[in-house]
Amino acid sequence: MNILEIKNLKKIYHTPKIETLAVKNFSFNLKEGEFVAIVGPSGCGKSTILNMIGSLDNKSDGDIKFNKDIKIGYMLQQDALFNWKTVLDNCLLGLEIKKIKDKNYVLNLLEKYGLKGFINSYPTSLSGGMKQRVALIRTLATKPDLLLMDEPFSALDYQTRLSISDYVYRIIKEEHKTAIMVTHDIAEAISMADRVIILSSRPSTIKRIVDINLTDKKTPIDNRKTKEFPYYYELIWKEIDHV
Amino acid sequence: MYSEEHKRYLNKIKRYNFLIRISQILLFIVFIVVWQILSDKKIINPFIFSSPKKIITCIINLHKTNNLYKHIYITTLETCISFILGTIIGLIIASIMWWNKYIAKVIDPYLTIINSLPKIALGPIIIIWAGSGMKAIIIMALLISVIVSIINIYQGFTSVDDIKIKLMKSLKANKLQIFKKLIIPSNTSIIINTLKINVSMCLIGVIMGEFLVSKAGIGYLIMYGSQTFNLDLVISGIFILCILATIMYYLIISIEKRLSLKN
Ligand SMILES: Nc1ncnc2c1ncn2[C@@H]1O[C@H](COP(=O)(O)OP(=O)(O)OP(=O)(O)O)[C@@H](O)[C@H]1O
Ligand SMILES: [Mg+2]
Predict the structure, then answer these.
(1) Which of A137, A170, B70, B229 has its CA 20 to 30 A from that of B244?
(2) ipTM value > 0.85
(3) Do B172 and A78 touch (CB under 8 A)?
């Protein structure tokens, strides 16, 4: 079942001197439970598309239709944790805004994903990977049906990046979320996504959508060792416009 | 529990801090003693430069005639009123400007103009408009403190990380929630700093106002002293002002400590 249908999405940015056509003719459908990655050259309009889906930005034209009354969670590139709040309070921010008092779900998540000992610590005493995990739990706290992630791991070093993407993947699958992830990293896209959308350079339109079929699909790190992996890598690499 | 070396290290720090305190006190004592000796030996003219003993006598006299506390009270009261009013007005206007960028843009040049104007130039007008009483003094202090607070606080409000605002929007926070849960808490240190500046700004304004119009207060005391060529009174006034300013400063510091303990 389609959770989201996008038709002919278009975005023009206006500044006093120039107008920039960032996105045009962007259409695609997202199925419930699916994990879709968006790749494309820098500045092509990936963040713009996510912002419009999450209604953080106005669209110029086109349709974004949700087939249910779904909740959206947004995960930013930077963790954007508040230094004056503890880990727990940071995670509860979304609930606080909605004036919901129930902490149990968040406490469960923190415990389940290895942050139990840090509930009352402040973000300054956490490592980059831990902060990113806290940021994810903050996003999950409001129980979103659809997760939008804009290069969620790009602030991390390679090691942490691999293990966190495993973590995040596990969380998303265990909590049965649908997700759209923007990334620069082709390997990351193949190892995590069911489908990879390749965008052209600006104004971005869909160049190609690649279905990822790996034998023995498991965790992202394991998926990188499958025999189809190099093939997809080659395929996507060739499709992306390189500057 | 500690190793010998660590104990020695701690001792060294203790001795060092003690030395600093002792030197501070000594410096003060030496200053007072040298001043007294110089004026006793008539090396400096005691009539113009006064002396510690004369200042103490002067303050005791003020105390006996009950005038001392009246003047301190008046100046403190004026400073407190203008400090509280100034902080509240500054916060409110800065918030309005953050809330509505249009208003901010419209009043921006006027803020700059008022800010760069030497407020003392407005003294005569203030006297005519507000009369020669406490009202005029408070207006003077407000003029001096408010604009700086507005500019500082607004600057802090607008320099909040865009990413964090985006985060709040993604969590569906409305503007009031963004303001209360992000803008204010991330600006506590800027607000506290503005309070510190505000206290001294208000004191400057109050003394300036008292120079111009008043019938009471430390500023009046100093002015009266200089007009009657009673330099003992002038320097006593300055001395009392020093103490007053220090006390106010430490009050703000203790508020700051209490707030940062909470975090
Ligand atoms: N607020 C804005 N005002 C004007 N132009 C903008 C604005 N935001 C983005 N753009 C332009 O729109 C285009 C797409 O930007 P976007 O941030 O969506 O790219 P991106 O694909 O996410 O890039 P990256 O991979 O570097 O993050 C860029 O050319 C950018 O210059
Ligand atoms: Mg981007």
Answers:
(1) B229
(2) no
(3) no
